[in-house]
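Quick illustration, no need to memorize.
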Amino acid sequence: MKFKIFILAAFCSLSTFAQQEPQYTQYMYNQGVVNPAYMINEPGLIRVGSLYRSQWVGLDGAPKTANVFANIPLNERVEIGVNYVNDQIGDVLTTNNFNVNFAYRINVAENTNLSFGLKLGVDNQSLDFTDQNVGGDLAFQNGETTSLDVGVGAFLFKDNYYIGLSSPSVIPYKIENNLGNGDSSILYKKDPTAYLMAGYVYDVSDVLKIKPSAVAKWISGAPLTYDLSLNALYDEKFELGVSYRHQDAIAALAGFNITNDLKIGYSYDFNVSDLNRFNNGSHEVVLLYTFDLLGVQKRYISPRFY
């Protein structure tokens, strides 16, 4: 029961708590989870991956997120992305989301591309207060909803930079409890979210690349948040980085290309907010594998670094 009262208290203001999209430090390895227009843009390559995040370790009832994903180019202009996300906040809130992204690319200048994306999926949320010792309080009834999940995005990119604008969920919905006498309370509320992201790759030398990147996130009824990151890639094998999330956390990132096809990444978040008194940070692990059906990667001297 340690700190579980904190989680329950948060549900008393769910309009700012539960509407948040799952949080990722290593979002750069699967930008399609927040922007359906993201493309690897390489026919012959199929990229699959999985990510697991344990947030606020040591805080009972803290969020845990699992994401399984794939990027599948169909031809030189069309690519689909598949995402399954399971997000849990203690034993109370469970979210399961399955969606498919459809992205279409056009050339806007030499070696410069613009893609447009549409996300279609299903979002299921369930609330279970059975084990939370809330008695018969009608404000904390179990509830569940399943809804259509639609997102849109645009992604401008070249080998050395990208700019993306997206809304991964454009349809709002909520779970309400009947309190009797015609009154109701909102147990869960999700509003549209918007992301703006950008990154630039500097070739410092033949073996070293530096990539500053940023992502800003806006959600109705909550303040604007942003992440600033700096990643370095050495010899196409070793990656180190640091990230700052506004008024929330500082993160360290590390990645290693075990083979040309297999990559592993890890990040650790240290809270700089008042929450740092109650937790031991957040851990995130990502695993990526690329199926090179046509020997595409073998022809690369310098693969794309995003």
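The longest helix spans residues 4-11.
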